[in-house]
Write a structure and sequence with these properties.
single chain, 299 residues, Helix Hairpins, HSP40/DNAj peptide-binding domain, 3 domains, three-stranded mixed beta sheet, 10 helices
Length: 299
């Protein structure tokens, strides 16, 4: 009997998941289907990947196949006696039998024929959405090209998606043929720039401008979040660059919770001064012994 490497035929590792095996088969089956491919060996390749998938998609047949061990493709071999006892009782001679026929003796297989089912093509698309849509969810209309024709698809974006996340829209891709399943659309999430907030996962960062006296004396200031304005307590002696955490005020995480928001302090000074303001700053300069450059040297 000649050994056939079904994992190599599908281009997957021996520990590949069921989803990985299915995805590899769908891609190769469409690539080599005789109704689609123009390559000379398309029919042979199509039958090869179909035979491999028929074995590896079935947990019992895959387990039996794995028990045969790993050999070079085309290498002559015979299953060990224990394998015959466990999986193929009643099969007495292996010399003239094909490995696929041997596995079919388990009673669960089916052979793939030339005009067999052809899965639909998978597509990739990008949804560029606002932070507000990522936070609350939204219904979008995507304009796609499928099978060379324009198509508009209504998509529900769930609350809690994040930058770079990939959503699978099952059965929304190309149409299957000969009873094959429709393909999928893999939707990549891209967040549009926001005028205030900078996302990091489900956390949000924003700049908080404070006057020198607010930073020095402390204050209560109103800040914006995606869910409305809140009061933030600024403690006395707040330094520029400090991150002040607003727990649970970030983006929805899709699991019923939220990330956090962080106000990044930036201390601003007036660009122009009135006569009274200048007088007060001059008094402060004369009275204060604070020197940030000296403190920096000491640290």
């Amino acid at each position: 009997m000649k050994y056939k490497d079904y994992y190599a035929a599908l281009g997957v590792p021996r520990d590949a998941s069921e989803d990985a095996i299915k995805k590899a088969y769908r891609k190769l089956a469409r690539q080599y289907h005789p109704d689609v491919s123009k390559t000379p060996d398309a029919e042979a390749k199509f039958k090869e990947v179909g035979e491999a998938y028929a074995t590896l998609k079935d947990p019992e047949k895959r387990a039996a196949y794995d028990q045969l061990g790993q050999r070079g493709a085309g290498e002559d071999f015979s299953p060990p006696p224990q394998w015959q006892h466990d999986y193929a009782q009643g099969v007495h001679a292996f010399d003239d039998i094909d490995i696929a026929d041997l596995l079919d003796a388990l009673g669960r297989g089916h052979r793939v024929h030339r005009r067999g089912p052809l899965p639909g093509e998978d597509y990739e698309a990008t949804a560029r959405i606002s932070l507000e849509d990522a936070h609350r969810g939204a219904a979008l209309h995507l304009n796609l090209q499928q099978d060379g024709a324009p198509k508009t698809l209504e998509v529900t974006i769930p609350a809690g998606v994040r930058e770079g996340q990939k959503l699978r829209l099952r059965g929304k891709g190309g149409k299957g043929h000969n009873g094959g399943p429709d393909g999928d659309i893999y939707l990549h999430i891209a967040l549009l720039p926001h005028p205030v907030f900078r996302p990091d996962g489900h956390d949000l960062y924003f700049d908080l401008a404070l006057t020198p006296w607010e930073a020095a004396l402390g204050a209560e200031v109103e800040v914006s979040t995606l869910d409305g304005a809140v009061l933030l307590t600024v403690p006395p002696g707040t330094q520029s660059g400090r991150k002040m955490r607003l727990r649970g005020r970030g983006l929805a995480n899709g699991r019923g919770g939220h990330g956090d928001a962080y106000a990044v302090v930036r201390i601003d000074v007036p660009a122009t001064l009135s006569a009274r303001e200048r007088e007060l700053f001059e008094q402060l300069a004369k009275s204060s012994h604070f020197n940030p450059r000296t403190i920096a040297k000491e640290n």
